[in-house]
From TrEMBL:
Family named by the database record: Belongs to the actin family.
Official protein name in the record: Actin-like protein 7B
Top-rank taxon: Eukaryota
Organism of derivation: Callipepla squamata
CDD domains: ASKHA_NBD_actin-like
Length: 315
């Protein structure tokens, strides 16, 4: 099938810059045996200990990692310690004349145009407006990272409880609109575990619009044991602020509360059999945990066979 939008065919020989790729269906989660995820621990220690790691300019030609949340969206190059760009998950359309195409406004710039129509990109942690998501991804790639999407494989994170059809839409946008040469979609919970140098853990993700508990066992999320509630950062912040606004107190946001790890560990131990060991890990990287995990994953040498190539998509 002919590639749209002038996209270079993978037969050019260097359509993916990170190695040789073999066919893997996009719904596949790479198993730890394939990735040798024991290397995650050593790689993760590098990202958390080296202050200059994210400044390696040679990595700017590698895969791009995008982590999308209800409140903010992060993007950067694989191998970096933290994302290079972060924008609010806001997309506005500044309407002009009937003949003119609406101008797209991204992030907090929408507040500069009060007459613009602001679209809700995500609801309860899931993408509900794919046109707005497409505009946001294009902005991150072309304006924030200043790269050509056709030159970089793309790793996108996926929140728990996402419908299967969302990956089909992601693939359509990535290959047919952005023209990326390779794509991989990875669960946010699994990537968060990689950030801490683990392959198994119980992930508690307290986001802006949803709080989720997802068990991860040897690099695989366990869907049937995962739980989600809409009681999350935005409603907790609002409720507590109404109680404390007259007391002169300021609040942290969600996972940033001081002492949260210690209190959570104590609460868990009180509900478990005596002698049960509980370790609550909350590193300084946790705000970008899913993104950093994606950065680690996309940098592993033996992960490179997991990319879905553009020619495979069109077959």
């Amino acid at each position: 099938m002919e590639s749209p939008h002038g996209v270079r065919s993978s037969q050019d020989g260097d359509s993916l810059r990170t190695g040789t790729y073999s066919p893997v269906f996009m719904f596949h989660e790479c198993h730890p045996d394939e990735l040798e995820l024991s290397s995650v621990s050593s790689f993760s220690s590098i990202t958390s200990s080296s202050s200059s790691f994210s400044e390696n300019s040679e990595l700017s030609s590698g895969p791009v990692v995008i982590d999308m949340g209800t409140r903010s969206c992060r993007a950067g190059f694989s191998g970096h310690r933290s994302p290079s760009a972060e924008v609010s998950t806001l997309v506005g359309y500044q309407m002009g004349s009937e003949e003119a195409r609406p101008e797209v406004v991204i992030g907090e710039e929408v507040f500069l145009y009060p007459d613009s129509e602001t679209m809700e990109v995500m609801h309860n942690g899931l993408i509900i407006n794919w046109e707005a998501a497409e505009s946001l991804w294009k902005h991150l790639l072309e304006h924030e990272l200043q790269v050509n999407p056709e030159d970089h494989p793309l790793l996108l994170t996926e929140p728990p409880f996402s419908p299967t059809c969302s990956r089909e839409i992601i693939a359509e946008i990535a290959f047919e609109v952005l023209g990326t040469p390779g794509l991989f979609v990875a669960p946010q919970s699994v990537l968060s575990v990689y950030t801490h140098g683990k392959i198994s853990a119980l992930v508690l993700d307290m986001g802006h619009a949803a709080t989720r508990a997802v068990p991860v066992l040897e690099g695989r999320s366990i869907a049937y044991s995962s739980k989600q509630t809409g009681v999350a950062g935005h409603c907790l912040t609002w409720y507590l602020s109404t109680l404390l606004e007259d007391m002169g107190h300021t609040l942290g946001e969600g996972m940033s509360h001081v002492g949260l790890e210690k209190r959570l560990c104590h609460e868990l131990q009180s509900h478990l059999p005596s002698g049960t060991m509980v370790e609550v890990v909350g590193s300084a990287l946790r705000r970008h945990a899913a993104w950093t995990g994606g950065s680690i994953l996309a940098s592993l040498h033996n992960f490179q066979s997991c990319w879905i190539r553009q020619d495979e998509y069109y077959e």
